[in-house]
Amino acid sequence: MSLLYMFSFPFIQRALVAGVLVSVCAALLGVPLVLKRYSMIGDGLSHVSFGALAVAAALGFTPLYFSIPVVIAAAFLLLRVADSPRWNSDAAIAVVSASSLALGVLVISKTSGMTTDVDNYMFGSVLAMSREDVVLSVALCAAVLALFALFYHRIFAVTFDESFSRATGLKAERYNALLAILTALTIVLGMRMMGAMLISSLVIFPALTAMRLFRSFRGVTLCAAAVSVGCFCVGLAVSFAWSTPVGATVVAAHLALFLSAWAVSLIQVRRQR
């Protein structure tokens, strides 16, 4: 009865629709990002998104419309840094992340105040999701899923053997850029609900959990999507029942499932030996 009662609230309905779509997109993109060792780019983009949202709020712009081009530009920058042998990519991403986070906090502290706004931006809030946010999330998530499905085989090739892909004439840079753009869109869409500190967990945890259970790229991808949606729904329900923050509860559900999958994989390895 309590679960049915939960869905009678419009803000829960909005959170469920947007959360499921963002979870699927983040999980699908997380698999190639983790395999290519680009997972820290997602964390860096979440901090850039925080700074962009803070500046948008201070200037009176629509947060999502302002943040999307800023985060996409940052995604190209971080991707270029990660591929450049002249840069220490981890250090460069850390610099961008810390700078964006500091800028966001400074802007908020000088405009609308620190307490509520910083909590909402950094840790997310279900109440922050408006009807317009959900409509935009549905449209952009549909585009992300369509593009991922359309270029699935090329993303697969670039993920596992980029050098061979280049040798066969595949424009690896284009698909790396596509991956960066899709990740940027997903990070921006999910940040209102999960927060800058927690949104990258939707990219990393499902992939790591699925890799403990499956070995094929397709199996890992499908499992990651299922895990992400399941953990989000469980986290949302537990959050409503126990009055806990949605973002943190969803991450706790992911952690519990990852530890369970890790234990199962260890048992399987010991049995094979």
Quick overview:
It contains 13 helices and no strands.
User: Largest sheet, if any?
Assistant: none
Count of helical stretches: 13
Which descriptor suits the 3D outline?
globular
Could you give the order of the helices and strands? HHHHHHHHHHHHH
| Secondary structure: helix percent | over 70%
Mean pLDDT: 86
Q: Which regions are unreliable across 5 or more consecutive residues at pLDDT < 50?
A: none
Radius of gyration: 19 Å
Number of strands: 0
Helix vs. strand class: mainly alpha
> Could you tell me the strand content as a percent range?
under 5%
Distance between the termini: 47 Å
Explain how this protein is built:
- By secondary structure, the protein is mainly alpha-helical.
- Helices cover 84% and strands 0% of the residues.
- It is built from 13 helices and no strands.
- The chain has helices spanning 2-6, 10-35, 39-59, 63-83, 89-110, 115-123, 131-150, 152-160, 162-167, 172-194, 199-213, 217-242, 246-272.
- Helix 12 crosses helix 13.
- The radius of gyration is 19 Å and the shape is globular.
Task: Describe how the helices and strands are arranged.
Elements: H1 2-6, H2 10-35, H3 39-59, H4 63-83, H5 89-110, H6 115-123, H7 131-150, H8 152-160, H9 162-167, H10 172-194, H11 199-213, H12 217-242, H13 246-272
Helix pairs in contact: 2-7, 2-10, 2-11, 2-12, 3-4, 3-5, 3-10, 3-11, 4-5, 4-10, 6-10, 7-10, 11-12, 11-13, 12-13
